[in-house]
# Entry
Amino acid sequence: VTLLELGSGTGYATSKILTANPQVVITCIDHSPEMIACANQKPELRKVQIFEQDIRDPWPDQQYDVIMTTLCLHHIPGDDRLVLLRRVYEALSPDGIFICGDIIRPESEEEENIYRKRWIQSMIHAGMSPDEADQMINSRKTNYPEIETVVGFCKKLKEIGYSRILMPYKHEISAVIVGYKNKT
# Structure
């Protein structure tokens, strides 16, 4: 099994995958030298190919059984994200799977306001100051128009060609969406 992880960060998810499935051949891409430095210090990742680059730049030219991204796509502008999603589809093997765990935007402003209030309360309960919590909320407000809704994201995947799209997890402002290239 080959896996391409886009926006791999510190290698946290990579490490968990390899612990459960040591036979997986993983390639990681992240643009942050600090994150990559952290990942490179993990002995369990010594066989992983890690590239420092923007995920919008060309990847190693091969087909992957699985391509995944976690908390990454919401940072990519909408037009670039669509191009990237098409590249993901094209880079998947015939029965490939795309797994995306990310921040989402609720379908209504009312629902968003409920979740923002809960998020602020959670951050303050976890020890953040009200000012720090407000900064986090303001960054979400700034990026809000670029954040996908579940319905919009799934519609894009369907238009790209995924034959089946599942959402095994959704909680307030986050979701995991899985696209199957050719499964029925």
Remarks:
- The helical segments are 12-20, 33-40, 78-91, 109-125, 130-143, 150-160.
